[in-house]
Amino acid sequence: MKNIAIIGAGISGLYIANLLSQNSNYKITIYEKNSSVNLEKGYGIQLSVNSIKLLNQINFQKISVKDKFHPHKLDFYSLKNNKKICDLDISMFNSTDRKYTTLQRSTLINFLKDGLHENIIYYNKKVIKINEEAENKEVSFEDGLSVKCDYLIISDGTFSKTKSLIANKETKPKYFNSIALRATIDQDALKGINPDNISLFLGSNLHSVLYPVNSKGQFNFITIFRKKLSTKELSDYSLFENKDFAASIMSEISKQVPTETINNLKSIKCFPIFVSSDVNEPKNKDTFIIGDAFFALPPTFAQGASQSIEVAHELYKNLENEKTQFNSERIKRVRMINMKSKLNYFAFHLSNPLIIWIRNLIMQKLVKNEKFINSYLGKIYKD
C-alpha cells in the first residue's frame, strides 16, 4: 500500500483525494494548515465543461439543481453607457451531462469534503521541513508531528510554503498590478441584465462580472481593476482587511460601476491578485505540485478552479499508470491558458475611446465566428 500525503485542503487537494480514495492500494491523508476547511459562503466560482466531465467521475451531477446554475451566454456590456456590446453562446460546448456551471465555492468544497472519510483531514498542520533524501519522504510539522510517505502532493495554494521548502528557495508569486473586489448581490437589485447569463461589464482599466451562483436568485459580483501597490503595502496583508482601504477601493470602483449596484452589494471583500511566473517542477520524482501551487492564473478566463481540477486529475491518471511525471503537454496547456487570460485582461481594460470602439466591433464579429470560438474556447473547454 502506498502512503500519500496531501498538503492543503483546497479544491485540488480534496478532488485528488476523492479520486485516490477509490483505490484501496492508497492510504491518503490531507494536512491542512488552518483549523477548518474554508466554507465561506457567497464566493462564487465558474466551472467550464472540461472540469465538469472530471467532477462527474465522483458524482458531481448529484448536487441539487437548486445549488448550482447553468448560464446560457456571456453578455458583454459597456460600463460607460451600460449598453450591450454582444453576447457569446457558452452553452454550445455543453452536452447532456456536462454543462457550464456556476455555484458557490462552498457548495463545491462541501461536496468534495463529504466524499471523504472524516479522519482523512488533519487540521492545524503547518509544514516546516521536508526530507526527500530518504526512501520514504519525511514531512515535519510545526506542532512536532512527523510523517513518512511514498508520494507527496503539494496543493497549498498560490502562496505555497511547501513548494519553497522543496525548492530550497522562496518561490513567490508575482503581483498582477490588479485588485479584485468581490461581493454578493440579490437578483432583485439587478436591472437591465439577463439573469440566465453571465454579465461582463467593460470599463476603463476595470471590468466587472455578475453571475448567478444557484437557482435562488443569489449572484456573485467581482470587479478587477488595475492598481499598483508598493512593496510595503503588499507585505502588509492586513491592509486588505482595513475598512478605510476597502472604502477607498469602493470609491474608485463607484466612478464606473452604477451606484444602484454599489449600494446593494453585501459581504464585500477586496484582495490583491497574484499570479505565477512559470511552472516549478519538483526534482524528486515522487513529489508533485497541483492546484494554484502548480500555477496561479490571472482570473480573466475563469479557469482557476477548472485547471486545479484538470491538473489533479492528470496526476491521478499518472499515478494509476505508474508514471511519476507530468507530461510536457500539461505545461504547454497551462501556458496557453495563461497567455489567453492575459490577452483577455488587456482587451477588457482598454481606456482609449477609439481603441475601445475598434475592440467592440471586432468582438461583435468574433463571437459569431464559429471557427474562432472553437479555436479560442474549444481548445480549453473540449479538453
From TrEMBL:
Organism: Pelagibacter ubique (strain HTCC1062)
PANTHER family in alphabetical order: MONOOXYGENASE (PTHR13789), PUTATIVE (AFU_ORTHOLOGUE AFUA_6G14510)-RELATED (PTHR13789:SF309)
InterPro entries for this protein: FAD-bd, FAD-dep_Monooxygenase_BioMet, FAD/NAD-bd_sf
Residue ranges of coiled coil: 302-329
Lineage: Bacteria, Pseudomonadati, Pseudomonadota, Alphaproteobacteria, Candidatus Pelagibacterales
Protein name: Salicylate 1-monooxygenase
The enzyme's E.C. designation: 1.14.13.1
Cleavable signal peptide: none
Keywords: Coiled coil, Monooxygenase, Oxidoreductase
Gene name for this UniProt entry: nah
Top EC class for this record: oxidoreductase
Domain FAD-binding: 4-320
GO molecular function: FAD binding; salicylate 1-monooxygenase activity
Domain of life: Bacteria
